[in-house]
Amino acid sequence: MFIQSKKFWLMISLIWVLSQGGKLWAAQTVVELDLEGNSKVESASILKQLRIQKGQAFSEDRAHEDLKKIYGMGVFSEAEVEKKEVSGGVKIIYRVKENPLVSKITFEGNKDLSSTKILEVVTQKSLQPLNEKKVGETKEKIKELYTKEGMGFALIEAEIKPDTSQKNEVELHFRLSENKKMKVKKISFSGNSVFSERKLRSLMKTKKKGILSFLSGSGKYKEEMVERDVAFLAYQYLNTGYLKVQVEKPEIIPLGGKKGGIELHFNITEGNRYRVRDIKLQGDVLTTPDELLGKFDKVKGTYYCQKVIEDDLQKLTELYGNQGYAFANIRPKPLPIEESKEVDLELDVDKGEKLSVERVNITGNTITRDKVIRRELKVTENSLYNESLVKESKKRLEALGYFETVDFSTPKGSGEDKLNLNINVKEKPTGTFSIGAGYSSAESFMLTGSISKQNFMGFGISGAVNAEFSKLRQLFTVQMLDPYFLDTRWMLSSSASKMLVRYTDFDRDSYGGELRLGHHLFDNSSVSLGYKIEEVSVNNFSAIVPDFFRQNASGLTSSLLFSLDRDTRNNRITATKGSYNLLTLEYAGVGGDNKFLRVDANSRWFLPAFPKKTVLKANARIGYIKSLDDKPVPLFERYFTGGINSLRGFDPRSVGPSLMIPLSPTGGDETFVYGGNKSLLFNLEYEFPIYDGAGFKGVVFLDAGNTFAENENYSLKNLRTDWGVGFRWISPFGPLRFEWGFPFNRKENEKSKVFNFTIGTFF
Question: Is the Cβ–Cβ distance between 136 and 159 less than 8 Å?
Fold first, then answer.
């Protein structure tokens, strides 16, 4: 019995030893760790992948995990591990076989995208071991790039070619098939009942391909633009009360036919429409909740509108910011009430610390002097932070025209109650040289040239040299302006000119100069005083000009000037909002030959109109000139109307006081328009977009005006009127104007239609 028992335990012990053999083997200590076969991949990058390290017990499981990680690096075609017993433990050897090195990367079939641009997204780099995972990533990256560029159906194939000139090296070759048919030919919607498809399409930046696509670039599929469209369509619903609207990313449907193209189909879930029931304010309240919520009173009872809420929140944030709370955080939380289809708006206010401006730091201005930037700022160091003044400062810097971008940031200062105002600008070239040609219906072909420089030497001084040549006009001018003369709020400007103008009945040849000293008044206004001197020669009179106007027509004009202006336009060239008002006085009597007093006033207004992107423009001008001696007001200084910049339904300078001049004793009288010493002009325009992407705009206008002689008074009843239509194009050559004017109550010798074409803006 004992013997049998002894045999039994011996068998059990033997079985246990055999079953634990692997574990006993693994318990051996790793005293050496070696790599073989890697020549291009650094050993350190491989060793970082290993779990087995020197001094640890060897484990088969860990060894297999290490092999997987080595394979996972993607640069080895083979990998194995060997264990050798050595003194004190075991030596572990990892043997690898490297993938071939990519000697170069080439592309074939890419016509619309350059190889340089494609290489920017390539993750498999040259002079690195071939990595199949990175090759796959590269194909996806190239595919994404083509999709963003509007060619989402592009095909990408990768081919690995042995490099015959180098051992164990390959060329990575991408064969590209660019599909140029990913043009948006159709845009459709489903689930929309609130807005028509036409309305939704009008809100999108992505447009289907049309006749003028070559000008506007419409018809292209661009992923980032489509993403913007999805967000904007949802925003339109949010602005009309549909709080839970969902606009899905569009489905791309290939269209058949020879020309191909795609359809973008948007699926919309509109949901219910909600009215605002109540607005609640909690958290840090500056004054009283009722006073702050007064800004939202117009919202209660109306349909929820995201834009109105955002605008009101901005006003509320600015209110806190103007009190020094630069980092006030107002978190809106809509709380829908499904039963009544209403929503409560909960506002949680965290005003933060009241802060002062510790330092104003300016960076990026390599040319512009710090003082040129600082003098435009409404915020000063050691003053309480004010949100409105910070915004005004940014606006003034952008209006200078010296910078591509102006970025403001407000990091924390040295203390909890301080912040710094960091201003980073990116300067743009402020010097221009241009030569151009154009055509005017009045002057035929024109040649123009100019050299200008703003911000000269970084001091904010601007200057320009201009020249114009046409059949009727030769002009040469030199101008200079220092808006902060000697670092004060005074402005200094000067100009010199040489001009020859050929009118219908005479030629005016002149040269002279002007010097003005002005001062800034408030933010948008200025006043100036100046002196002007001009030598004028009038000759080549036509036969119909009376001797009365030929006498004393030439001579020296020496004048004192005064002007007062206010400019609140949002853009000097394409204004859509604001006004420009100017009053000028000229007293020509400081020596010289010509003695007169001139007063001119001009007011221009720009009002946003309906629908969106339309503008209502109004212009009013009044002028008066009076001779200060017994001579008549010089012919070339008198007021004339008619033409593209006044009454567009009449020929240039054809409206005003006139005389009938007999050409011969037998008859054949001709009308001589000698102009007036008083002038009135009114213009009204309705400007609307025709093809906004290409810069085409249409216009409908009404004009009224006239000039009046010395023996006449201003008279609204005697104004000549016209109406007309036209279109304008903001072209690379400048604003082009094509306008047709039709006079009301035209006289016998006047045209029924006048076509005007010129380069330049009206008002």
Answer: no
Structure tokens at 662: 């007999």
Is the Cα torsion angle 64, 70, 71, 73 positive or negative in sign? positive
SS3 state of residue 748:
coil
Taking CA atoms, 322 is separated from 180, 377, 497, in Å, by 53, 16, 48
Buried b (16+ CB within 10 A) or exposed e, 63-84: beebbeebeebbbbeebebebe
Do 129 and 41 form a contact (C-beta atoms < 8 A)? yes
Residues sharing a CB contact under 8 Å with residue 644, sequence separation 6 or more, in sequence order: 441, 442, 652, 737, 739, 756, 757, 758, 762
| Beta-sheet pairing, 678-691 with 614-627 | antiparallel
Q: What does residue 195 show for φ and ψ, rounded to 5 degrees?
A: -115, 145
Query: Tens digit of pLDDT for each residue in 631-684?
Result: 888 888 899 999 888 999 998 888 999 888 876 666 667 888 888 999 999 999
- Within 13 Å and on the Cβ side, how many CA atoms surround 142? 29
Position of tokens 């009135």? Answer: 680
Cβ–Cβ < 8 Å for 754, 740: yes
Residue entry with tokens 């419409």? 218
With a CB cutoff of 8 Å and minimum separation 6, the contacts of 161 are 170, 171, 173
pLDDT tens per residue across span 17-26: 444 444 444 4
Dihedral Cα 115, 119, 121, 125, nearest 10 deg: 150
